[in-house]
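pasting for ref
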Amino acid sequence: MNAIASRFRQLMAGKNSPIGRYDLKNKTKRSLALYTCIGLLGGILALLLMASPGVAQKPQLQQPLLVATRVIPPFVLSNKGELSGFSIDLWRNIANQIRVESKFIEYSTVPQLLSAIKDSKANLGISAISITAERQQNFDFSLPIFAGGLQIMVRNPENNNSAFPNILQLFFSATLLQVIGVALVLIVVAAHIIWLSERHHKDGIIPKSYFPGIFKACWWAAATLATQADEMPKGVMGRLVGIVWMFIGVLFAAYFTASATTSLTVQQLHGDIRSIDDLPGKVVATTAGSTAATYLREHKISVLEVTKIEQAYNALQTKKADAVVFDAPVLLFYAANEGKGKVQIVGSILREESYGIILPNNSPYRKPINQALLSLKENGTYQSLYDKWFDAEKS
């Protein structure tokens, strides 16, 4: 105990002395410098370890691109959940070219597909998506992947169950209206001739006064033209006019019959819709939100908008619609396959359109996709895919 107490007193004496205080201060400074160096070395080692590829945390694997699409044969077909078609095959070749993994997400309508891309639920979209100025305000497009346009499809007239043709439409056809117009002119001319020749005859069939004489003359001319004259003129000049007029009536009846027969035959073979000019007053089916729907509304044509194009086909077959207006390649494929013998394509392309791959604005994938498209067209892959999926359409 005495030794411990003695050592404590020595320490205390050294601390209270000037020399002891100086030594303690130096030790404190050296300790701070030592701790600072150790901290700096530790920080440098940590930075080196983080930068080292062998020790650093492994980067996350790249997520597959989400590709929005919708079923629209022959561009996209679905068989038990397995997608195929021209657009699907084309995208798979593009994905191989730019070396990315991808996953398809199906949507029912074009507006849903566009909304998914706008809301970043999909990285891009491919199907049969028309490139329009309105869409380019909110999205980017690739180079065109297909050149198409809008066309009209109607029921095959041979499948029309009605035994009676549209008589009202027949009489209002341009050809028969011309025939009727010529007949009225001839009746008026013949009526005046017969009135002039019969008005002074004492037993004449036409009254002397212009009214009502001209009306009686018009009736006689019309009845004779239809080969149904009930009396003949009494004067020599009137009878000569009557004979000539009856001969004209026979020719006119034959011409009218031939024109009516031709018009009915054309109606049976081609139907009453042959171009865009025949669509006003008709009900035309197409998909909601499509360029076809916009086109029809711009031309003041009644539109039956449906969710899927298959519903438009059904509306046409069940006579809820008089025609379908949609993308020509899609209609041609249907007419050559499932709708063969049931429908027919009429008229020429209404408006040319190009399809593209749709992306968000400023997408980093636009340039590599365009490069891949050009490469596929140059090496013949694109043409092979086109021939594979549109042989049926060509036939």
